[in-house]
Design brief:
about 375 residues, alpha/beta, four-stranded parallel sheet
Length: about 375
């Protein structure tokens, strides 16, 4: 493994410790958020450190069910379980978007049971009309004012423009990494891509961009990867359990593209650097293709581009047991994929800390079918 990939993997494995070290070194306050629909640039321009919230897969849920319904998404319940156990003590604030129901209704629970110096709510539009962009711009302006009150400093348009330029550069580097996966012999495993993306949710984007550039410089020194026979796209919202990615590839396939919030959805957009920064942020982040804010037509268009560009042989939907937005989309998406591309799809239901072995048996059978079709 390259040095850059080792750092990324260690960052993901030791997220809370890394964040505590960053906070001690930089003295920056940290603002958490859910989903890549919250414009990090606004937080970054305020002199704060944005952190996307994901659970650690280290212990069972024991406290969250006293506050949240047990039928909610287990990943959100695990997040909350670890927060109230003090596992996210690095946080100084949180921005909770109007997104899936589990996260949307976490706002009042969080505010009541774990009061932080800064707690805010962001209305994310579902439609893409000019009126909704205007509304979203006003929402970002409101959050901007609240962040300014929290920090005691103005968020200047100059600082916003610099943050947008930094984040655009980072997104372009992430897209470069995914573009390399088009090769007959993809240079990265699915797990490495996962660690690449999720380490960017922890580290400062400037530092993470430098790691990505270091990674590209190290590529010629890595052993030549073997050619893959089965090229998969992984879909399913929050596919954050590294064991799923590892298990799929251990069955003889390569995950060369994805349609997940902790993957390609997070850098699918580019922010216009010439327009008013808040309007540009609103227009760009309204297009992030998550299941809860995106039409079937737009989701299919997003997935179709990956299927065509990365020559996908099959699609695995790995959907959390109680993830309603992804489950609502799955039936129509799978029909459209089969009709348009003639490739098979496969659904597995996941859960927090679930047993991988029953899933392995089914995925092995699916990959064997794809291998037989490719012969």
């Amino acid at each position: 493994m390259s040095k850059a990939l080792e750092i990324m993997a260690d960052t993901v494995r030791n997220g809370p410790a890394v964040l505590a070290e960053i906070k001690a070194r930089t003295s920056k306050k940290m603002i958490g958020y859910f989903f890549p629909v919250v414009p990090e640039e606004l937080i970054y321009a305020a002199g704060l450190h944005p952190v996307q919230i994901y659970p650690l897969f280290q212990e069972m849920i024991t406290e969250a069910d006293a506050h949240l319904q047990s039928f909610l998404c287990s990943y959100v319940r695990a997040d909350w379980d670890q927060v109230i156990k003090g596992k996210a003590s690095y946080l100084d604030g949180i921005i909770i978007p109007r997104s899936c129901e589990a996260v949307t209704f976490l706002y009042q629970t969080w505010k009541r049971n774990n009061p932080l110096p800064f707690t805010d709510y962001l209305n994310v539009p579902w439609k893409k009309s000019e009126n909704t962009i205007l509304f979203f711009t006003k929402e970002l302006e409101r959050v901007k004012h609240n962040l300014e009150a929290f920090t005691g400093k103005e968020i200047s348009y100059d600082s916003l423009n610099k943050a947008i330029a930094l984040y655009n550069r980072h997104r372009s580097l992430m897209r470069k990494a995914y573009d390399l996966q088009k090769s007959e012999s993809p240079p990265f495993s699915g797990l490495e891509i996962l660690q690449m993306v999720m380490s960017g949710f922890i580290l400062d984007k400037k530092d993470h961009s430098q790691l990505l550039e270091q990674l590209f410089a190290e590529l010629p020194e890595r052993p030549a990867p073997s050619q893959t026979d089965v090229r998969l796209l992984l879909s399913g919202g929050c596919v954050i359990d590294a064991r799923i990615w590892e298990m799929i590839e251990s069955c003889g396939a390569s995950i060369v593209a994805d349609d997940v919030t902790n993957g390609a959805r997070a850098f699918s957009h580019t922010v216009d650097e010439e327009d008013d920064p808040l309007t540009s942020l609103a227009r760009a982040y309204a297009t992030v293709p998550c299941g809860f804010n995106t039409s079937i037509a737009d989701r299919f268009a997003f997935v179709s581009e990956w299927i065509k560009s990365h020559r996908i042989d099959g699609v695995i939907f790995a959907i959390n047991r109680n993830c309603e937005p992804e489950k609502f989309d799955y039936p129509e998406l799978t029909i459209k994929i089969k009709e348009a591309f003639g490739i098979p799809t496969f659904l597995v239901e996941t859960d927090y800390m679930s047993n991988m072995e029953p899933l392995r048996t089914r995925i092995e059978a699916f990959i064997e079918i794809l291998q037989d079709e490719g012969e």
